[in-house]
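QA checklist item 7 of 12: single-chain prediction sanity check.
[x] sequence parsed
[x] length recorded as 360
[x] structure emitted
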Amino acid sequence: MAQDKFQGFQVDGPETWTQFHLREFVTKPFGDYDVDIKIECCGVCSSDVHTINGGWGPQHFPLTVGHEIVGKALRVGPKVTLIKEGQRVGVGAQSYSCLECRQCKNNNETYCKKQLDTFGAVWPDTGIVTQGGYSSHVRTHEHWVFPIPDSIPSHIAAPMLCAGITSYSPLVRNGAGPGKKVAIVGLGGLGHFGVMFAKALGAETWVISRTHSKEEDAMKMGADGFLATSDKDWNVPHQMTFDLIISTANSFGDGFDLNSYLSLLDVHGRWISVGFPEEAELKIRPQDLNPNGCLIGASHLGSRKEMLEMFKLVDEKGIRSWVETVPLSAENLSKTVQRLHKNDVRYRFAMVDYDKVFGA
C-alpha cells in the first residue's frame, strides 16, 4: 500500500538545529475523522526552539516543527462533522486525544494520557512520527482543527493557536474578569496575549517584567499597571492585592525570588505557570505559602471549547497579535529560530508565503 507523503523543512538534530532541509516525509494513513490541510502560514514558538536545540531532551529526528498552523481544509474524512472542505482552519500544539476518558469528556482533553503533539509524537498503530507546520500540509483529527473567523487575518490567528490559547485558558479557568486583579509575569510571546486577553475579559491587568524597557508596549496592549523587579522593594506596595498571577517567563535568571511574587497574592490567590524555562528549578517550602495561603499550579494549552471561545473573543474585541511575518525558506527559518532564541522579537513570528515554496 502506497504511503502518503508531504513536504517540509526538517532539522536533523540538536547539533545542527539551525539548519533546515526541504524533504518529503511520510504521514499517517488518512482516517475517517481526519482533515488534510494545505498550510498557508505557521507561527514560530519557543517550543520549536526548545525541541530542535535539545533543550527539552531527546526527540525523533529528522523533524519538522511548527504548531501554530493556519490553512485550508482540502480533504475531510467521511465521518468528519466539525469541519467543512474549503474552510479556513487552524491547528495548534496538540493533534490527538482519545475523546473517551474522563479528562476528554470534561473538556480537559489536553491532559489525556493518550494525547499526541502536533510534531515529534509517534502514532501508536504505525510508528509514524508527527510532523509540524513548516510543511506543505498537515493531517489532523477533526477535534483538533479549529475554524478561523473571517475577521482575523491568518498571520494574526496563527500565534493564537499555541501562545494565545496557552494564555487564555488559565485566565478563564482561574476567574479572570471584572473585579479581579491579574498580573502577567513576562512580556513576551505568551505574555503579550495574557495582557490583551485579561483586559478583554474585564480584569484589572498588570505586567511584571525585569526592567521598564517594555512598559510602553504593555500600556499599548491595555495594561493598567507595570512593575519592574529591578526596582528596589518593587513588590512591597502591592503585597496581597492580586487575585491571580500568570507566569509566562521563559527563563527566571539569577536571583529570581519566588516569594517576592507570591507575596503579591491575596488570600488563596493563585500563581499559574505556563512558561517552560529549560534550566529553571524552583525551591518551595510549605511555610512560604502560609502568609496568604496561596496556591501554585500550572496550565497546559486549552480545550477545543476554550479555543473556540478565544477566537470568538478575538473576533468581538478586535484583538490583534503583535507579529512579524517572515517569508518561508530554509534560510529564513534558520535566522528566525536564532532570533527567537535570543528573544529578538516583539512579540511573535509567523512564517508566510507558503505558496511560493509549495505552490498555490
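[x] summary fact logged: The CA atoms of residues 239 and 264 lie 4 Å apart.
[ ] second reviewer sign-off
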